[in-house]
Design a protein that fits this description.
alpha/beta; Rossmann fold; two-stranded antiparallel ribbon; five-stranded parallel sheet
């Protein structure tokens, strides 16, 4: 075997070993572009990014992560929005936040979205194309930023088929965008209790009056996200 062919074969074997060692749903380390100096981050997302259900929005997960990591942050939370779903209160989908994120010129962008696209009466079949459109716009406008895509946050351990479909569609879109990273709250079981029976962590972490996490739930989300970001080399 010639030297070039042998080298190509060795590289393919190394790649196969790497893929086997990193099961689906587990963040892969050392994928982020190294950031030096103070880190400026933008969070873009729906009501979870806004902090609905906390005693104040600044007790939401995005603000908690930014404070813990000592990042400067621009938080753009659009309650009710999705890649497809347009929020009833302000007629905005997640794309409405792109301009503010791009204007902030962050080194890292964390996009959390998808829960609302799994709601009834939303055309979930459009989710993949819409996610690809929005993530492509971010990549084109911020070519050197690290973009972390967070799949739908599901507030119990029993996501329905629509949630699983939307999660899959977003992941497929993310994989088509160069240099983006993936975090999957459903696969990682961020919440494991029962929403309807108020059992397990749902009994303590949910503000049922608001239909969202309470302060404890957002602290839990922040810890899970920080651990995933560390594993991906984003810190």
């Amino acid at each position: 075997m010639r030297r070039g062919a042998a080298l190509a074969c060795a590289l393919l074997i190394a790649l196969a070993v790497t893929l086997v060692a990193c099961p689906a749903g587990v963040p892969r380390a050392a994928a982020a572009t190294p950031v030096t100096g103070p880190v400026h981050v933008a969070f873009l997302g729906d009501s979870y990014t806004f902090g609905v259900g906390a005693t104040a929005p600044t007790n939401g997960y995005a603000y908690l992560v930014a404070r813990h990591e000592r990042w400067t942050a621009r938080v753009v939370g659009l309650p009710g929005s999705g890649y497809v779903r347009v929020a009833i209160r302000d007629n905005k989908d997640i794309a409405a936040g792109l301009a503010a994120v791009i204007a902030a010129q962050p080194q890292v962008v964390i996009v959390e979205c998808g829960h609302n696209d799994a709601m009834p009466r939303v055309d979930d079949l459009r989710t993949g194309a819409a996610a690809y459109r929005d993530l492509s716009a971010l990549r084109a406008a911020l070519p050197h930023a690290t973009i972390v895509v967070v799949g739908p946050v599901w507030l119990d351990g029993f996501p329905d088929q629509r949630a699983l479909y939307v999660r899959h569609a977003i992941h497929v879109a993310q994989r088509r965008i160069p240099g983006t990273l993936w975090i999957d709250p459903i696969a990682e079981h961020w919440f494991t209790g029962s929403w309807t029976r108020h059992t397990g962590d749902d009994a303590t972490m949910i503000n049922y009056a608001a239909g969202h996490p309470n302060n404890l739930g957002y602290r839990h989300m922040a810890r899970r996200l920080e651990a995933d970001l560390q594993a991906l080399g984003v810190h």
